[in-house]
Amino acid sequence: MKRDNLVLDPACGSGTFLRAAIKRKKELGSENIEKQIIGFDINPIAVVIAKANILLEFRKGIEIIPVFLADSLMPDLKDIKQTRLQNDSITINFEEIVKDSGNAEFYYKPNGKDLSPQEMYDYIKKLMDLAEEKSKGINITEKIESDVLPNQELIEKLSELISKGKNHLWSFILQNIYNPYYYRGKVDVVIGNPPWLTYKDVESPKRQSFLDKLYVEYGLGSGSENKTHQDMAEFFIARAKEYIRKNDKDEISDTGKIGFVLTRAIFDSAQYNVIRRAAVSANKGPNNSNDLPRITKIYDITQKANPFRRTSCIVIFDFKNTSSEIDGFIIDSEKKVKINETPKVNLIPTKFYINITKNGSGIGLSKLKNNNVNSIYKDEFKQGATIVPRPYYFVEIEGKEKYGFVVSCAPEYDSRAGKRKRKKDWYNFPKDTVVEKHLIYDVVTGDTIDKYKCSTKKAVLPIINGNFIFREIKGENHYNIRLVDNIDSIIFKLVKNKAQEESIKGLLEHLSEKPYQNFENNWEELRGTKFNLESPKQSQKMGILDWLNFSNKLLSQLTRKGKYAVVYNMSGKKVKCCVLKEEKRKNPVIIDYECYYYKTNNKLEAYYLEGILNSDALLEKFLESGLKNERHITKKIFELGIPRFDNNNRKHIEIAECAERLNKKWNKNDQERIDELVNEIM
Question: How far apart are alpha carbons 464 and 461 in whole angstroms?
Fold first, then answer.
């Protein structure tokens, strides 16, 4: 911030950053500070509070308080490649305020002149006066001057609304809508704390559609699976560029800067991949990522110094070419900082590195070597099945019957239990339900895995010998659950006589009606507008059986061959891995979506992978590279370049032998030896 530069907070909230800017401007000896700061927000209450806070900071009356109820993402800026808006107009959607009132274009450059906010205020007043007169039946034809001529349709619309008694604060609304567009290319510094929300938190389909356009235009895509997790802050980072002052050659000023308080997701989350890549000058980036602001400085905030519920950081962006090496600081504190207090903090200078891998990226404290080669295992490991909602499937066995077991919903997943807040009121597996024994499976979930060992949970899955026993029959925007047509041939392999066949079939038929039909009804109801059989989107047509076998992640496990399954947790602070051996049993062990697994017939390869994934040496490299997400591990671990197992490599063999011994008995020496070997081979 400098003495006379123009500062914008595009999501100013209650005005905290604007007050800080005013204080800094006073320290620098600035004059007319009220003309050097601007704040926008779409929340009217926040705007009122911000205006009050700014008045308190100035301690004097000012002509215009520079905070506006406006959308800084500028929905009418249709294309980032435009040098100006189409026809210099903004579409005013009166429908959002008055039902069935339509919309009108607002041409905001009378006679091609770029109006200041004060000039625009006077111009809008002129339009409103004409609309008022017209609503009273006064002929205004002779009063339509050249500057007003393009806005005749708007005057007509305003007059119509006024005559119907809908005399809202239209001048206030027009002024606020206009302001973000006026300040395009005029701001020196953009600061603030953009909302810590994600794309999926946006409820308005229209707003989502607008964000979709920004997503494409700025090339923010980092995989369709990450789109709904896209932080709103990313859109603010991208759009902030439009406000930065340009020079005579229409180039962004070298002095223009953006400074935002963000969550630490920018360090490691997949949805920020494009923004991290844009910071590296050698990277050309997909789509428009090279046009995005570049990370130029980072202030990482430790847990003690962080006053927020989520881990956070401060990131400075500019538009100069940068490198993978970023100067920065770690902000630390001796004691835990609380919100609304002025803490004593230490600034520790440090270097951050933007590590770009073949498919991903991360910001860490060390530079990653061999970062352009993914391990072959990244494609080999598969995610487990989506056995959710949990209360539909996970059970506790309470007794035995002739053809099966008596089960009830597992207590830890009971939706009626008050131990933890449930996002949705899913139905529970009914108490004391008799289930055919072939439907009971042992399931490995993320929380049942530990280093070199694991346990399982019981689940009822509607599958026998690799075949679904139920099917979904389309009704009027709902599914009916019925037995599959070939159920007799599926059952035939399980029974010894006709009576037994009829009994089991009756048992399965009862399960299709209760509880599975009830589960389907509950699923469709709680999915709400996200369930629609007429939708062109396949994701909106999915019933419970489709979701259970999403991307064939359930049935494919039953056909994938291998005597050994290497399994590790998808999420957590540490990687935990175990080896499952193929055993003779009624049903195979099922891997849940909270885990990734790899099947092999090579025992040494299985233990080699288990040893590497459980090693502290690998975890340390993972954390320092910045690839490790705060919560998730996923398959990013393989971007470190874990070597393919080689039967002729003595070090690989030794890792496997140490890991096999650790499966039988914990031994500190074996674990330390694995860490040594991992450092050597990587």
Answer: 9
pLDDT in tens, 185-234: 899 999 999 999 988 888 888 888 888 888 888 888 766 666 777 889 99
What is the Cα–Cα distance from 483 to 511, expressed in whole angstroms? 9
Give the model confidence (pLDDT) of 24-37 as tens digits: 999 999 988 999 99
Paired with 97 in beta bridges are: none
pTM: 0.75
Residue pair 393/366 in contact by the 8 Å Cβ criterion = no
Label residues 182-205 b or e (16+ Cβ within 10 Å = b).
bbbbebbbbbbbbbbebbeebeee
Bond preceding residue 515 cis, omega within 30 of 0: yes
Query: What's the maximum distance between 2 C-alpha atoms anywhere in the chain?
Result: 99
Query: Which one, of 270, 278, 239, 292, lies nearest residue 79 by Cα?
Result: 239
Under CATH, what is the fold of the domain 373-396+410-422+441-459+554-682?
Adenine-n6-DNA-methyltransferase TaqI; Chain A, domain 2 (3.90.220)
Query: Model confidence over 432-441: pLDDT tens digits?
Result: 999 999 999 9
- Are residues 256 and 320 in contact, defined by beta-carbon separation less than 8 angstroms? no
Encode pLDDT of 511-529 as tens digits.
999 899 999 999 999 988 8
| 3-state DSSP percent of the chain in helix, strand and coil, to 5 | 40, 20, 40
What is the spatial distance between Cα 238 and Cα 275, in angstroms, rounded to a whole number?
Answer: 9
H helix intervals, 473-631: 487-492, 498-511, 517-527, 544-548, 555-559, 603-613, 616-625
Average pLDDT for 391-399? 96
Alpha carbon dihedral 663, 668, 672, 674, in 10-degree steps, equals: -10
Where does 186-366 sit in CATH, by number? 3.40.50.150
pLDDT of residue 444: 98
- Using DSSP bridges, classify how beta strands 345-356 and 361-364 pair: parallel, antiparallel or unpaired: antiparallel
Rounded to whole angstroms, the Cα distance separating 70 from 51 reads 14
Q: Per residue in 449-492, pLDDT tens?
A: 999 999 999 999 999 999 999 999 999 889 999 999 999 999 98
In CATH, the number for domain 1-72 is: 3.40.50.150
| Residue 673 in tokens | 């030896």
Sign of CA dihedral 316, 322, 324, 326: negative
